[in-house]
Design brief:
Blueprint (H helix, E strand, L loop, with lengths): L10 E4 L2 H10 L14 H4 L4 E3 L10 E6 L6 E6 L4 E5 L1 H7 L11 H16 L2 E5 H9 L10 E6 L6 H10 L5 E7 L2 E4 H7 L3 E5 L2 E5 L11
Length: 222
């Protein structure tokens, strides 16, 4: 597990998938716990959970999303911290660079990642791979297809320097590539910032808010 609390987009593997599924089955009357049939112990023994952007609940459980094989198979859940056996961050996925030797590295999403990675490294920004590409590279579960998108995460504690922001926006010429910028207050879509010139919808742990400066405390909900 990571030294600090898991962050949105981190991938978490269960210590005991069967116990997690059984506990959810025991509380199937609770909407925040019941798992769909496809989220079996066998699947969760392979597939990590994705940390959602929300605050831990009153019991200190981690907000997570369960991913299945298809886009339609998504489910929100809550994970006891004691169930976390291993965590992988988007930044770790980027550093491992497993797309270079992936048997299907010619897929558009992986080819886009191979083009973008050296440019991002040259910018010296803190970046990582999220979404379906990150999930597949980290888990070894090959769920990618010709239409898969590439979701990247750039973490910036302070506003991006204008040259770096312009260079990142230039990467968005690839329509299948999306960049989310994480700030201490939340995260926003770089494509939206490029379109509006600044004002963005900031995703926070307390819900989305509109703001002109995503590095300052948000003041207005959409």
């Amino acid at each position: 597990m990571t030294a600090s609390a898991p962050l949105p987009h981190d991938l978490l593997w269960l210590a005991d998938p069967a116990a997690f599924v059984a506990d959810c089955a025991d509380h199937a009357d609770r909407a925040d716990c019941a798992l769909p049939a496809w989220a079996s112990a066998a699947w969760l023994a392979q597939a990590p959970l994705v940390v959602r952007r929300a605050r831990a609940d009153a019991r200190g459980r981690i907000p997570v999303g369960v991913r299945g094989v298809t886009r339609a198979q998504r489910h929100a859940a809550w994970l006891p911290a004691a169930q976390v056996a291993r965590a992988v961050t988007p930044r770790m996925i980027a550093r491992l660079a497993r797309w270079r030797e992936h048997p299907r590295r010619a897929l558009p999403a992986l080819a886009a990642l191979a083009r973008a990675a050296p440019l991002l490294d040259a910018m010296r920004v803190d970046w990582g791979v999220a979404g379906s590409v990150g999930f597949s590279l980290a888990s070894g579960l090959d769920l990618l297809h010709e239409g898969s998108d590439l979701d990247l995460l750039v973490t910036a504690a302070a506003p991006l320097a204008p040259p770096a922001e312009r260079a990142l926006i230039a990467l968005l010429d690839d329509p299948r590539l999306d960049i989310q910028v994480g700030t201490p207050r939340g995260a926003f879509a770089l494509r939206e910032r490029a379109r509006t010139g600044g004002r963005v919808l900031l995703k926070t742990a307390d819900g989305p808010v509109m703001c002109d400066d995503p590095w300052l405390a948000p003041a207005a909900r959409p």
